[in-house]
Design goal:
The protein has 7 helices and no strands. It is mostly helical. Helix 2 crosses helix 3.
Length: about 120
């Protein structure tokens, strides 16, 4: 690591999210409790807790099922994709709308929904 004057290194501050952290983040973003996600997945709540705390390895088939339930992709959960495909999709859709008034209105609605949540 270069420690020359004037060089600022933020290396210590960068930390990739773990699989469990991404699962927790998506669950919360969707407004689900651990209990609700466990019920949807037909597993005990403790299993969801283990997943979110990286206490157990998760089979590929479960990651695929989680990605469907959490409306994302297995690659996002695994950290292969850095951005959430749902967010990317919304951005892509907004970019396709040429009418500035409609884009502004949709942006305001999305922002209001986010502020409400």
């Amino acid at each position: 690591m270069d420690t020359s004057p004037g060089i600022i290194c933020y290396c210590d501050r960068v930390r990739a999210e773990s699989l469990g952290e991404r699962i927790r983040s998506k669950r919360i973003q969707m407004g689900l409790t651990q209990e609700q996600l466990a019920e949807i997945m037909s597993v005990p709540k403790s299993t969801i807790s283990y997943y979110e705390n990286d206490k157990i390895d998760i089979k590929g088939s479960i990651i695929k099922e989680l990605s469907v339930v959490l409306q994302t992709t297995p690659n996002y959960l695994l950290g292969i994709e850095e951005t959430d495909p749902l967010i990317e999709g919304v951005s892509t859709i907004l970019k396709k709308i040429k009418d500035e008034k409609i884009r502004t209105m949709l942006y305001a609605q999305i922002k209001a929904a986010a502020d409400y949540a």
